Structure formats: C-alpha cells, structure tokens
Amino acid sequence: MWTRSQFSTICKVDYVTNNLADCFNKWIEPHKSMNLDDLMDKLRQVLMIKWNLRRKIARKLQGLILPHIIKKMNEDSRNLELEVAECSEKIAEVTELGGSGFRFVVNLQERTCSCRKWQVSGVPCKHAISFIASLTNAPLVNYVDMYYSIEKFRAAYSQVIPAMVDKSQWPKSDHGFFMHPPLLKATAGGPKSERYKGCTEKKGNEGKHKSPICKDYGHHWHKCKKGNPEDISTLMAVR
Fold first, then answer.
1. Helices 126-133 and 67-76, interaxial angle, to 10°?
2. d(CA 63, CA 139)
3. Is the whole-model pTM more than 0.70?
C-alpha cells in the first residue's frame, strides 16, 4: 500500500506490479527473434486480433460495471472484521477489529476513504464496502468509478486496427542510400529472449537448497528453525 501513497487520484490504478509487462513479454516471446520490421507487423496483427476479440466480448456484456470488478468486491465483502460507526448517512468511522485497530473515515458522497485506496483505484476499499453494506438500498456498483464501466470498456476497443497487406506488397521507397543491417557479434549461449529483472523483483528458487523439514529454500536441514525438533532429531539419527 505504501507504494501508492503518493499516487495521483486522477488516473485510477487497481494494482501496482509488473504483470502487464511480464504478460506482454510472454505473449510476444515466440516472435522476438524476427527482424524489426517483421516484428512490428506481427505485433500489429496480434493486437488487431486481440482488439477484435475484446469488441466481441464487450457486445455480450450487460449491466453497469465490468463483471471481474463486481466479483472482486463480492470477495472483499466476505469475512470483514470491521466496526462501522455512522456519523451521518454519508460519513462513518470504520475500525478494524482483531488486528491493528486502526480507524478510517469513509465519505460516500465524496467517494473517499482515509486509507486512500478507494481514491487511487476507483473501487471501494474494504472499509467503504463495510459501510455501504450496512446501508439499505445501496448497491456496491453505484460506488465504483466509471473507469470500470462496460461503456468505457466498449469505447476503449471501439477503434479498429486496420488490416494490411504483406511486406512484399508494401510501397518501395528510395532515399538515395541503402541502410545496411548492423554487424552482430556472436555471443556464447545464443541471444537472450527474457528481460532482465529489477533488483526489487522476487527471484526464483533455482539453485537454492530445499530443507526436507520445513520445505523452504535457502538453508540446510540441520539449520532449520521452522521445523519440528522431533523431525530434526529423527533425521539426524537416520543420517
């Protein structure tokens, strides 16, 4: 949550991860070895197909808000350990029970919560959901930003990416010179197809030792601090 503390509330963001970049890189991985002009044309084609698929999906959607947002709010509304103290019909204090005990102020008229998650994401946070659920005739979908509306989803994919003929049929241009491809120096192991991960990203467990006691990585069984002492004693006796 701290990563979003200084985010602007104008652009609605429902998550802060590298998932989009990772998914896109995985999506185009089979085409990365192509020449640049062929790669750009292939990306145009796969995006054209994807946009057309999204338009077909959009035509079948009904209601006000996208289904996955409604599903997320329904999941967030379960097992809420929160206490709601109404100040008025639009304002309430929501206290977390059995945990931090922090208190947050929810304003339904301004669509704000002091945790700022509602303002940043555009989707009611658990504090707002708890307050809304305590009211009568107050559907959750009425408090979701229109950024997540079916109408906006349809508008996002309404434009058609134009179809094109293949490269052999493109117009030939003459600039008075010929640009040769760059000279490539062979490297051991072949070209890299995966991106370099940042220092803050979680690395995999490749090469790490797995403890047979706690099943965690990074330490040996005789240094395990999470396992059952009896299991460790048994393993020492066997070895």
1. 80
2. 13
3. no
Q: What's the chain's Rg over C-alpha atoms?
A: 27
The Cα 94–Cα 106 span in angstroms is 7
Query: What are the tokens at 236?
Result: 């020492």
Count of other CB atoms within 10 angstroms of residue 231: 14
Residues in the chain, how many?
239
| Number of other residues whose CB lies within 10 A of the CB of residue 181 | 7
- Render pLDDT for 82-134 as a digit per residue (tens, 0 to 9): 999 999 989 999 999 877 789 999 999 999 999 888 998 899 999 999 999 99
Q: Is the dihedral of CA 215, 219, 225, 229 positive or negative?
A: positive
SS (H, E, C) the chain: CHHHCCCCCCCCCCCCCCHHHHHHHHHCHHHCCCCHHHHHHHHHHHHHHHHHHHHHHHHHCCCCECHHHHHHHHHHCCCCCEEEEECCCCEEEEEECCCCCCEEEEECCCCEECCCHHHHHCCCCHHHHHHHHCCCCCCHHHHCCHHHEHHHHHHHCCCCCCCCCCHHHCCCCCCCCCCCCCCCCCCCCCCCCCCCCCCCCCCCCCCCCECCCCCCECCCHHHCCCCCHHHHHHHHHHC
| Cα atoms in the 13 Å half-sphere on the side-chain side of 178 | 2
